[in-house]
Specification:
Distance between the termini: 73 Å
Shape: globular
Radius of gyration: 18 Å
Length: 178
């Protein structure tokens, strides 16, 4: 009896120090074309961020019919950097990076249909920042920011960050103003 076995190795990428230097990482071609595999997404994230492939990932719909994978990095702080990948039948496409996220909530798409997300970053006992990020062709861009202090919940509707439903335009206006 002849038995053939194939050795399947995990993909690997050389370590990339760009994010640690404050630079934007340059994704490999498979992430630009949207043909990367799930394992490649985790491996590339691990090579750029101080991550390991066994980190829990987050899957959600950033907008209707717009599934994404958040591959997290936890470099010893309580805040997290996420690489965000669009998921399609072809594979995974790198969409951008969200840095220093302590919590997040998906928001309804903007008037042009661009996906949005609210991120929360706490950097001390008395200070935090709430940001509204919009996903465009060049990744995420902060379009609104609110500085929080004291209880961090000042000016936020009760349970704003904890809701599983996307933040509505009315909620965003109540939090960030016009």
């Amino acid at each position: 009896m002849l038995v053939a076995a194939a050795l399947v190795s995990s993909p690997s990428y050389p370590e990339d120090q760009s994010v640690k230097k404050g630079e934007t990482p340059k994704p490999p071609v498979e992430f630009v074309t949207g043909t990367a595999t799930h394992q490649q997404a985790l491996a590339w994230t691990a090579s750029v961020l101080c991550n390991s492939n066994d980190q829990a990932e987050v899957r959600l719909d950033l907008a209707p019919h717009y599934p994404v994978l958040f591959a997290p990095d936890r470099c010893g702080s309580h805040n997290t950097t996420y690489f965000v990948f669009g998921v399609s039948h072809r594979g995974y496409k790198y969409l951008g990076m969200l840095e220093d996220v302590g919590a997040y909530r998906v928001a309804a798409p903007d008037r042009n249909g661009h996906p949005r997300i609210v991120t929360y970053y706490g950097f001390g006992a008395d200070d935090a920042v709430l940001s509204l990020e919009v996903l465009g062709p060049d990744g995420f861009k902060e379009v609104k920011r609110k500085n929080l202090n004291e209880s961090h919940a000042e000016g936020l509707p009760a349970g704003f960050l904890d809701s599983p439903k996307p933040a509505t335009a009315q909620e965003l206006q109540a939090v960030f103003g016009k």
